[in-house]
Amino acid sequence: MGKNVQHWLSGGLLALLLLTPTLARADYLEDAGMGTATVLANVLYMPTKLVYATLGGITGGFAYLLTGANYEVAKRVWTPSLGGNYVLVPEQLRGNQPIYFSAPATP
Question: Which residue of 51, 56, 75, 102 lies most exposed, with the fewest beta carbons within 10 A?
Fold first, then answer.
């Protein structure tokens, strides 16, 4: 009876050791895939966001000058265009965090 239990335990331990690298590799591949997707998304997202922010900054500056230095008018242009995310992270692509291209509206 002792040898039978020993065979079962050693077989179970061997199976556990053989399965462990497979599970670790799956997490690594998922992380690598999500990292690659994040980089590729940022290749398009970042330049678009920078152009939007630049144009918003310039437009807000013109609004400030053309309204006689009215900061509140310029702020309504600057806040949404200059706020928000400039870089995407994997958690945003997974849907766990929101993506704000413009700054979120404040109540």
Answer: 51
Given a contact cutoff of 8 angstroms between Cβ atoms, the answer to whether 82 and 57 are in contact is yes
pLDDT digits (tens, 9 = 90+) for 45-68: 999 999 999 999 999 999 999 999
53 occurs within a structural domain:
yes
Close Cβ partners of 41 (under 8 Å, ≥ 6 residues apart): 88, 93
In a domain, 101, yes or no: no
* Distance of alpha carbon 19 from alpha carbon 92, whole angstroms: 31
Q: Beta-carbon neighbour count of residue 78 at 10 Å?
A: 20
If you write DSSP's letter for every residue of 17-42 in order, what string do you get? HHHHHHHHHHHHHHHHHHHHHHHHHH
Give the residue carrying structure tokens 């053989």. 18
